[in-house]
């Protein structure tokens, strides 16, 4: 191996290592990344409500795909829209900013209208 090749390997090895193993740094379990701010957030009533809304959405989105793009789109979108309504309600009930609470109400109403339309689409197409 030539000196030039060895030098290139020596210079590129740290980069290759960082690229190969740097991604593992993002995969730390949540408890290892907790802080004092997180502990304060955990004590807030809104935190449990947000976590519950996200968990419901994740569970509801776990439905298997059918291969029908229209049906899969509607079924995938419904849990997202419902989670948005749920989270907006959390802000309405717990938020401090009146402008944001007002906007959350408007967003929830819009998402609820879209949920109703999507549910109607499912019914129209004979889907549960």
UniProtKB/TrEMBL annotation:
Keywords (A to Z) from UniProt: Signal
Leader sequence segment: 1-25
Gene3D superfamilies named among the record's database cross-references: 1.20.1260.10
Pfam family, any one: DUF305
Residue intervals of the DUF305 domain: 70-128
UniProt cross-references to InterPro entries, sorted A to Z: DUF305_CopM-like (IPR005183), Ferritin-like (IPR012347)
Keyword Signal among UniProt keywords: yes
Keyword Lipid biosynthesis: no
Transmembrane feature ranges: none
Name of the protein in its database record: DUF305 domain-containing protein
